[in-house]
């Protein structure tokens, strides 16, 4: 009985194990089949392939499958794989993140579910770690796009092309054969180029001697041609800092050749992955580029890309920041890359045929010398003439008696009583003067003591007429009158009848409004056109039918840092009293500029501090972007001070489309 039970248990376990083995083999085969078309990438320690269950990432829930192997191709289990997809912030919309956490479902196979909230670009970052090894990778991922493009942390294994493997296959590039021949040469345009390390040495940190052999298509050695070798540290090297490209003098020494072989020494600052760009050119055979990749510790150099003769690079019509050495798709939008020729890059000239000109509405105008003037309008306000302003204050403490000029705006005339004052000091001074005068009357009016007493009253602003009245009256006056010294209007008042005033305080301010100032604000860009004595016309908003002739009386020496304007002052006659302080005014100037070179404003493209015009060369629809310096603007015209000549035809309509074409095909620095 026990034996029968034991046999039954063994049979059941065998069935269960067989079932799980079947499930495991089925799932592994399914994953292997699903990953068969996935691109594979490598780092120093891992080989990674990623696919999506539905073929492409989509809005909503997604399932990703990742296969992880080591450098020898063995499955890697129990690895920790974490990351996230992130859509960058756009305008007021904040950035969005989707966590991506992989779980192992069979040896070397991992799956993760993640949710994408909307359509667009979702760059994916992953961190892979196991034991003491780790890798950080970045991919360009977007909804609706099946393929991932690695942007950091590793390289695509599909792009590796070993130089010493004559059976290797290479991406097709028009005009370029990237498969090396039996001697290891690559056909680049009209050149055959071979690069080899001396004695099959391995790349290392420090000096690395090499030989670059250049031949023509008939295997003839090419000597004394222009050849450059540029080296950059690859951004795909995990954790490596980007090393900027340096030219021959700084990084690579190439010795002259007599047998088509150019000997040089590559100096690598640190261990890692490197890109080596060989640039060859001659008047007879034109231009050719070949880019190789290599890694310290390896003797192999891998051909990455090459450009056909005459082609500078490939770029995207929508994203001109993308520059590639071979045809392909834009990593941002997926559009096919278009070629940009060396001639276009160097000359900046583009060609637009007559049909396309008509479609984009190209119009031209002639750069010509013209006599023009510029009108300047400034906003200002009326202010009283500070030259005629005066303040009324006293040299003794006092009480105000009767106030005659009792409101702001009151008109007063010279000699008119403004107010009366009472002061014990003043009363005492009057009494002392009378007593001194009575005691010294026999000495005559020229007596020194008598003069000193009279001078004391004068110094306290008591007029000569009041002193004579005091002498005739023979007794002090309690409330002494204070008179206006000139005609004017009360513009400020700080006293009332009966108020107390300290010595030296300002009691009244008077200004003569028979002439007024206009203080206007002029932008600093127009200051060079203005000068003292220049004629202007002024009108008021409430007196729009009347114009006042004026001249610039003064230009203030400072600029307002907030408005970037400078004040100017003009003087107006106001004998009729129509102009009142703080009224708004408009000031108009007209400056003759003389004969200068002008083009319509629509013909100048402005990019920051840069000014560009597109000159129509007239030959086969050729258009050339030209950097210019500009001066004054007036009446729809802009002055050209440098860069153009009179009579040249300038594009005035369709500039933005032409600018996009120029940026696409020439990569000119100003854009």
Structural description of this entry:
There is one protein chain. Residues 22-28, 159-177 and 235-251 have low confidence and may be disordered. The chain is mainly β and 671 residues long. It is built from seven helices and 47 strands. Helix 4 runs antiparallel to helix 5. The strands form ten sheets. It has a six-stranded antiparallel sheet with strand order 6-7-3-2-1-11. It folds into five domains: 1-33; 35-156, Immunoglobulin-like; 160-309, Immunoglobulins (Immunoglobulin-like); 350-371 and 594-666, conserved putative lor/sdh protein from methanococcus maripaludis s2 fold, CATH 2.40.420.20; 390-511, OB fold (Dihydrolipoamide Acetyltransferase, E2P). The relative contact order is 0.08. The chain is elongated.
| SS field, number of helical segments | 7
- Uncertain stretches of 5 or more adjacent residues: 22-28, 159-177, 235-251
How does the overall form come out from the CA principal axes?
elongated
Query: Could you state the CATH homologous superfamily of the largest domain?
Result: Immunoglobulins
Could you tell me the CATH topology label of the largest domain: Immunoglobulin-like
Protein name: Efflux RND transporter periplasmic adaptor subunit
InterPro entries: 3HB_CusB, Beta-barrel_RND_2, CzcB_C, HMBD, MFP_Cation_Efflux, RND_pump_MFP, YtkA-like_dom
Keywords: Transport
Family: Belongs to the membrane fusion protein (MFP) (TC 8.A.1) family.
């Amino acid at each position: 009985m026990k034996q029968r039970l034991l046999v039954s248990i063994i049979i059941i376990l065998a069935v269960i194990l067989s079932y799980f083995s079947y499930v495991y083999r089925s799932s592994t085969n399914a994953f292997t089949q699903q990953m068969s078309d996935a691109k594979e990438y490598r780092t120093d320690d891992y080989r990674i392939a990623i696919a999506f269950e539905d073929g492409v990432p989509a809005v909503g829930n997604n399932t990703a499958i990742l296969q992880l192997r080591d450098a020898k191709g063995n499955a890697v289990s129990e690895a920790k794989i974490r990351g996230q997809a992130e859509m960058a912030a756009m305008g007021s919309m904040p950035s969005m993140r989707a966590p991506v956490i992989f779980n192992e479902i069979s040896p070397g196979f991992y799956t993760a579910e993640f949710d994408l909230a909307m359509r667009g670009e979702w760059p994916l970052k992953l961190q892979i770690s196991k034991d003491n090894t780790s890798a950080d990778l970045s991919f360009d991922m977007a909804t609706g796009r099946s393929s991932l493009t690695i942007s950091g942390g590793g390289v695509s294994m599909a792009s590796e092309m070993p130089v010493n493997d004559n059976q290797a296959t290479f991406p097709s590039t028009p005009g370029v054969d990237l498969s090396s021949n039996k001697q290891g040469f690559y056909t680049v345009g009209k050149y055959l180029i071979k690069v080899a390390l001396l004695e099959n040495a391995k790349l290392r940190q420090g000096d690395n001697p090499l030989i670059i052999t250049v031949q023509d298509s008939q295997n003839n050695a090419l000597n004394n041609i222009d050849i450059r070798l540029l080296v950059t540290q690859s951004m795909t090297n995990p954790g490596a800092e980007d090393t900027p490209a340096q030219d021959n003098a700084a990084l690579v020494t190439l010795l002259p050749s007599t047998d088509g072989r150019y000997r040089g020494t590559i100096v690598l600052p640190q261990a890692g992955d490197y890109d080596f760009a060989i640039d060859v050119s001659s008047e007879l055979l034109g231009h050719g580029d070949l880019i190789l990749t290599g890694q310290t510790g390896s003797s192999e150099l891998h051909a990455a890309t090459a450009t056909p003769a005459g082609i500078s690079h490939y770029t995207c019509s929508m994203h001109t920041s993308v520059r590639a050495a071979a045809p392909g798709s834009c990593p941002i939008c997926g559009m096919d890359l278009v070629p940009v020729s060396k001639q276009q890059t160097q000359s900046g000239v583009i060609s637009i045929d007559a049909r396309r000109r008509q479609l984009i509405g190209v119009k031209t105008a002639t750069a010509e010398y013209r006599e023009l003037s510029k009108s300047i309008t400034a906003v200002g306000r009326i202010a009283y003439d500070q030259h005629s302003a005066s303040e009324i204050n006293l040299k003794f403490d006092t009480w105000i008696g009767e106030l005659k000029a009792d409101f702001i705006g009151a008109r007063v005339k010279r000699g008119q009583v403004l107010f009366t004052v009472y002061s014990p000091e003043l009363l005492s001074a009057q009494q002392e003067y009378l007593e001194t005068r009575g005691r010294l009357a026999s000495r005559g009016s020229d007596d020194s003591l008598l003069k000193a007493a009279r001078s004391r009253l004068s110094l306290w602003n008591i007029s000569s007429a009041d002193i004579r009245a005091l002498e005739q009256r023979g007794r002090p006056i309690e409330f002494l009158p204070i008179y206006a010294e000139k005609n004017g209007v009360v513009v400020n008042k700080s006293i009332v009848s009966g108020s107390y005033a300290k010595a030296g305080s300002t009691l009244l301010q008077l200004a003569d409004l028979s002439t007024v100032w206009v203080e206007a604000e002029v932008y600093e860009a127009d200051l060079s056109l203005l000068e003292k004595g220049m004629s202007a016309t002024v009108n008021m908003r409430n007196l729009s039918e009347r114009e006042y002739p004026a001249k610039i009386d003064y230009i203030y020496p400072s600029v307002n840092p907030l408005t970037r304007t400078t004040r100017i002052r003009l003087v107006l006659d106001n004998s009729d009293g129509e102009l009142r302080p703080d009224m708004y005014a408009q000031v108009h100037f007209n400056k003759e500029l003389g004969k200068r070179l002008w083009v319509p404003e629509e013909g100048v493209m402005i990019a920051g501090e840069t000014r560009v015009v597109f000159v129509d060369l007239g030959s086969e629809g050729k258009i050339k972007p030209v950097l210019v310096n500009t001066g004054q603007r007036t009446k729809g015209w802009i002055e050209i001070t440098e860069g153009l000549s009179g009579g040249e035809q300038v594009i005035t309509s369709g500039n933005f489309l032409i600018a996009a074409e120029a940026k696409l095909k020439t990569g000119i620095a100003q854009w």
